[in-house]
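Two proteins follow. First one:
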Amino acid sequence: MHKDPGTRLKDTHLTQFAPDVLAGLYLPLFMFNGKRTVEYDAREGLFLVRLETAFRNRLAPGQFPYPFWHNEAKWNTYQGANSILLWVDPKMARIKVAQFTDRGAAPPIVGSEPIAQPQFDGRWMWTDAAGRMQPQVTLFDGLFRADNPYLPKLDAAYRTLALRMRDAQCDSCHVPNNPDGMKRLVLLQTPAHAAGEIQRLMKAVRDDTMPRDETGIEQPLDVDLKSALLESGGAFEALLGAAKDWEAKRTQ
């Protein structure tokens, strides 16, 4: 979210996403008309691409990566979004930072009435009336083909990992409301988010850089808990790799 044009990117609170998570879960929440501007920002040393947009606020709750309505100000900013900002590294020709804002020069490309902030019950994932896990877009059937043979094992591996992350209190920090105010938030609360950040998670556990206490000092995990988290995380990571390899072979 881009709030203050005067704030440097290094001083901005950002959420870290794997490219497929950004492209598959977040950008589809917006509509585009193809209009854009490109400029070079000398202060950041990056190209800035501005895309005219509007937010799809009438999607079913399970089509959002998580309940954006947990915070009224965030929900209203999403609903008023009129620009997507892509900060591009000129050396790598890759997007370094993506933001949205309601402070673009043009109004949203589609006029839509804001809807009231839905009620948030504190759950980032839930089971709907038909017994299906939600948000639907964060499940593995949204990342892989329905006939991917690794899906059942991958689902089971995630559930085991989720239990170990809960034991390690990962869900007390790595959730969308960012209770610790981290400048670079890593989300782990859904299968898709965990899949995108598993390598970062595994490195942090191996290096004893998480969790941190209330003063921000690293506190190594209990030996048995660390071992269990590394085991379940390693199994999850290996199955993700196998599932992606299977997908890649089908596109060749």
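Second one, unrelated to the first:
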Amino acid sequence: MEFTIRPLRRDDPADVDAAFDAGHEALRHNVPDFPPLSRADYHRGLVHPWPGQEVHYWVAGDGDVVVGALLLELPTLDNLHMAYAEISVRPAYRRRGVGTALYRHAADFTRSVGRVSLKGDYVKALAGGPPRDPGPGAFGAAMGVQAALDEVRRELDLTTVDRAMWTKQLEDARASAAGYRVVAWGDHTPDEFVDDVAMLDGRLVLDSPQGDLDVEPDKVDRARIRASEEVIRQRGRRVFNIGAVHEESGRLAAWTAIGFDPDETEHAWQHITIVDPAHRGHRLGMLVKVENLLRAVEQEPALRLVNTWNAAENTHMIAINEALGFRAVDAWVAWQQSL
């Protein structure tokens, strides 16, 4: 097959749509029941990347047809040794060398900018779960990547979950969280808590299992939090944040977030949930997660599904999620390769 790899024409909406469609078609094949991707977020992400991230895009073309796409993210504030690659090939064009060429392009570019590690992920079936195409895992093995961390995607179906158990979980959590109060916000963290949010966000790599991944904690400060909030607004996303405040010190001791893609009403993503180690043992993780779910359901009445990921060995957070009704769907393998 004859094809070329070229940079995405970011100023050409048709070219951007074609790249999005290639990625969407590939994901739909690999994970048929995955929540819908946001075309609006893809377009806006070209103009408004996350702070601390440099993003490059290429497409593989068979004549005028975009048959594959490559997204490469380069951290610019931390983890300066690495890059993250997302490779997509339309199912009808697989096993023709397109994915291999895109992977080699990603590796060559990563080396050319002085990075020494390439990372990515692929999905596989869980025992008893829905079937998944084994092709992405086989492709990773053929490229020589090393599986570094097993994660599991869980989904909360609000049309079937017994919400009465949320009431019981919330009552128990509140009883254990004497001396803490709940505070909620949207896309602008209250000034008095922004430094605490930065501290908690920066702890995520330290506090959650990372397996064999070669990653360092993100360098998060007030400016980075404010810049991220501005990107959320520019992309048209909606976010629900809730924290638990230690009343004696006035500091934020726990924090969780739920986010919606632009124009999406039926599906949301459960993002970070983290508790300051100094305040563990008070069921603060459960407290903030239930409070935030209740708030999201109240303000987003069309919400039907919430998805989240946890490291397979993160038994504490998995227990909280499953107590709330999240159920395992499939496995996601984070891989890395030294260049």
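SUMMARY FIELD: The chain has a mean pLDDT of 97. Residues 13-30 form the longest helix (18 residues).
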